[in-house]
Amino acid sequence: MDLDLRFESVHEGILVSGTASVEVTGECGRCLEPLRFERDVDIQELFFYSDSESLLGEDEEQYRVEGDAVALEPVLRDAVVTSLPFQPVCREDCKGLCSECGARLNDDPDHHHEVLDPRWSALAGLTGTAAESDAATKSESDEREES
Ligand SMILES: [Zn+2]
Ligand SMILES: [Zn+2]
């Protein structure tokens, strides 16, 4: 993370502003391909002096100058994390993975499976059984009529 920050002494405390350049690494939310991108995040946060009367309400989250230092980490973390996409993708039209075998559909756009979805083949089995038992019932009643 590269920081380009300016610290200004203002009446209530220290105003920190600038840019954090971060390199983000992760994986595509669809195809799990590793991805990496750069992002510049604008930072602006006022650290109040511990003894200053704050202008904000009690329930507002406030950063404070601790001794003669400011804790940048939570500020940077909040700024960077909220700027990240919820589900990063390697590219906008990423096709993701085949739900059957996990193949990367980006590499093989024509990829498909001839086999029936197992849920459908289970249904096919059900209708087959139903037809058979219908036939069985029918032949039984036929026999009954004959006798
Ligand atoms: Zn992807
Ligand atoms: Zn597949």
Explain what you see.
By secondary structure, the chain is α+β, with helices and mostly antiparallel strands. The protein has 2 domains: 2-83, no CATH class; 116-147. Helix content is 28%, strand content 29%. The protein has helices at residues 72-83, 118-146, and strands at residues 2-9, 13-27, 34-49, 63-65. It has a 4-stranded mixed beta sheet. The structure holds zinc ion (2 copies). One zinc ion (ZN) is lined by residues 28, 30-31, 33, 89-90, 94.
Short description, anyone?
The chain has 147 residues and is of the alpha+beta class. The chain has helices spanning 72-83, 118-146; strands at 2-9, 13-27, 34-49, 63-65. The chain has two helices and four strands.
Features:
single chain; 147 residues; alpha+beta; 4-stranded mixed sheet; 29% strand; binds zinc ion
SSE inventory with pairings:
Blueprint: E1 2-9, E2 13-27, E3 34-49, E4 63-65, H1 72-83, H2 118-146
Parallel strand pairs: 3-4
Antiparallel strand pairs: 1-2, 2-3
Distance between the termini: 91 Å
Task: Provide the list of bound ligands, each named once.
Answer: zinc ion
- The Rg value, from CA coordinates, equals 32 Å
- Characterize the quaternary organization of these chains: single chain
The main sheet comes to: 4 strands, mixed
Question: Overall mean pLDDT score?
Answer: 81
Helix content: 25-40%
Strand order of the largest sheet: 1-2-3-4
Which series of helices and strands comes N to C? EEEEHH
Question: Low-confidence parts lasting 5 or more residues at pLDDT below 50?
Answer: none
Number of helices: 2
Apparent shape: elongated
How many separate domains make up the residues? 2
Q: Please indicate the percent range of residues in DSSP E strands (runs of 2 or more).
A: 25-35%
Strand tally is: 4
Structural class: alpha+beta
